[in-house]
Design goal:
Elements (H helix, E strand, L loop, with lengths): L10 H32 L4 H10 L1 H17 L9 H16 L7 H34 L3 H30 L7 H27 L15 H9 L2 H18 L4 H8 L6 H16 L9 H22 L1 H5 L4 H26 L5 H40 L4 H29 L17 E3 L6 E3 L2 H15 L1 H11 L9 H30 L6
Antiparallel strand pairs: 1-2
Length: 533
């Protein structure tokens, strides 16, 4: 029974812990940025079929997530309760992430079936890593203020993981060409493989720099009993509802590549930009290259600049803000301000400075800074509030239920993402979104969505064409406003005295540490063995 020092926090440990969300968010962003477009515009699935792929696996998640939570709560090793899973699951996560983008050619129905199987395997592996990761936070950082700091710093570092695939994925994929579907399949797969391996290296590295500090006695955990304890607390019910609606606020991001590819056709002179880049590279290194970026390859990174910066800044200022207000108050304010920003962005982009003009595109890029600022804060706050709940439940019941709490939170998050994904994809699909066969540059163009950079066409009438584009832009703006408003409403009923909690949990930990030390000294006296920390 090793001695645990609950106050053993170092900057090095926070940095090491931050490598984990960096890797996880790299994979998450890779999926969110590129998977939908790969399934629809490369493998040829409809948006409705893509929605089914994303939702069908949730039936398995209803079993997988609670099962993983139970496994975590029953895990007791020399290396800790949650920490060992970092090493155990990183390779399966890397492999299954790459499998999602494997260049298959089974026809539309065959590709559809493959996508479901691959997505099922991916989420099984990802869940086995994600739930222990979420449970690590209160175990590695037991003290509330340091925990918030660690969550903020780790999410700032993690934000870099969201920026890299957003900025570079389509550029790297384009290195394998975009003139044929086979070239695109290869490009998507190689880009996914590169980012998956990079993410895996960072995830595995975090294992060696962190240590669990909350000692959990070996005992068999009853999952049903754990659920009863968890949901006997009204705060858990409210946080679950909040987490359910918070998925909507982040869902619009899946349409960013579609916006860059279709809504921004003709906004920038792509041929001139490519010539400029090729000439610039030749002048710098005296090597002739032929860069041929697609609309989404160039514009998706530009559109992510404002949101990436705002994410990092918003997370950085959370600790000082929490000295002046509670997590609940900050959550409500950020949610409502973010909703206002999204609504104004939609109005400006549609009616004042149209987004499909150079000035409108620049304006939208700038406005994305303000629309994403609140979202970055709420990501950190939700993790912190669930971690507080784990500690609060331990004080009341004597049970550490990280696995139960975070597995259920993970399940709700996945269900809500899948449900709203199906809804919004079906809506855009209902407006008439479909990608036609690729045609040669010399072929006839069909009326409707025609990408200047990739020769894709969507055979629609002009009216339907504009409706689809408006729907895509609304998903990036108005949908976020709806989600932010919905996630703010339940928080008005969230009752939690943080100042009182901090005093109680500090006293509880001191008493727990004192009893643990007494047990260690007693064991040493009886066995004549000295246990080292």
């Amino acid at each position: 029974m090793p001695k645990k020092n609950l106050r053993d926090h170092t900057t090095r440990e926070i940095i090491a812990f931050s490598l984990l969300p960096f890797g996880l968010l790299t994979i998450q962003t890779l999926i969110n940025t590129a998977l939908n477009m790969y399934l629809t515009d490369v493998l040829g699935l409809t948006l409705a079929m893509t929605g089914v792929v994303l939702s069908a696996t949730k039936v398995w998640d209803a079993v997988n997530d609670p099962m993983m939570g139970l496994i975590v709560d029953r895990t007791r090793t020399k290396r800790g309760k949650c920490r060992p899973y970092i090493l155990w699951t990183v390779i399966p996560v890397v492999l299954t992430t790459s499998m999602l983008f494997f260049p298959v050619n089974f026809g539309q129905k065959g590709n559809f079936a493959y996508a479901i199987v691959a997505y099922l395997l991916y989420y099984t592996a990802y869940t086995a890593l994600d739930i222990p990761y979420q449970g690590l936070t209160p175990l590695v950082f037991p003290e509330n203020q340091k925990r918030v700091k660690a969550i903020s710093v780790s999410n700032i570092v993690g934000s870099i993981g969201t920026v890299l695939p957003s900025v570079l994925f389509f550029t790297i994929a384009g290195l394998w060409g975009n003139q044929t579907v086979e070239q695109e399949k290869t490009g998507y797969f190689m880009a996914a493989l590169i980012f998956s391996v990079i993410a895996g290296i960072f995830i595995a590295s975090s294992y060696f720099g962190i240590k669990e500090k909350v000692y959990v006695k070996p005992e068999k955990t009853n999952y049903i009993k754990g659920l009863k304890i968890v949901f006997s607390d009204k705060k858990m019910v409210i946080l679950v509802v909040v987490a359910f609606f918070s998925a909507i606020a982040n869902l619009g991001a899946i349409f960013l590549p579609y916006f860059a590819k279709w809504n921004c056709i003709g906004v920038l002179p792509m041929d001139k930009i490519m010539d400029f880049l090729n000439n610039l590279i030749y002048k710098l290194i005296h090597v002739e290259v032929n860069i041929n970026l697609t609309n989404e390859g160039l514009l998706t990174p530009l559109l992510q600049i404002g949101s990436g910066i705002s994410y990092m800044l918003s997370m950085a200022i959370i600790p000082p803000l929490l000295k002046k207000m509670s997590k609940k108050t900050l959550w409500i304010w950020m949610s409502l301000l973010g909703a206002v920003a999204d609504i104004l962005t939609f109005i400006i982009g549609m009616y004042i400075i149209p987004y499909n003009t150079p000035a409108g595109l620049v304006t939208y890029i700038v406005l994305r800074f303000f629309t994403n600022f609140p979202v970055g804060m709420t990501v950190v706050l939700l993790i912190a509030m669930f971690s507080d709940l784990v500690d609060n439940l331990e004080m009341k019941s004597g049970e550490r239920l990280e696995g139960t709490v975070f597995s259920f939170r993970s399940l709700i998050n996945k269900i809500s993402i899948a449900l709203f994904n199906v809804i919004v994809l079906a809506i855009v699909n209902g407006f008439g979104y479909m990608v036609g066969d690729k045609i040669t540059s010399g072929g006839g163009l069909m009326l409707g969505m025609t990408s200047m950079s990739q020769n894709y066409t969507v055979p629609l009438t002009g009216t339907h064409y504009e409706t689809v584009l408006t729907a895509i832009f609304f998903m990036l703006t108005g949908l976020g406003a709806i989600g932010l408003i919905l996630q703010a409403i339940p928080m008005f009923f969230y009752k939690f005295d943080e100042k009182k909690f901090e005093k109680e949990i500090a006293s509880f930990r001191e008493e727990k540490e004192r009893k643990l030390q007494e047990e260690i000294e007693s064991a040493e006296a009886l066995e004549g063995v000295h246990f080292e920390g």
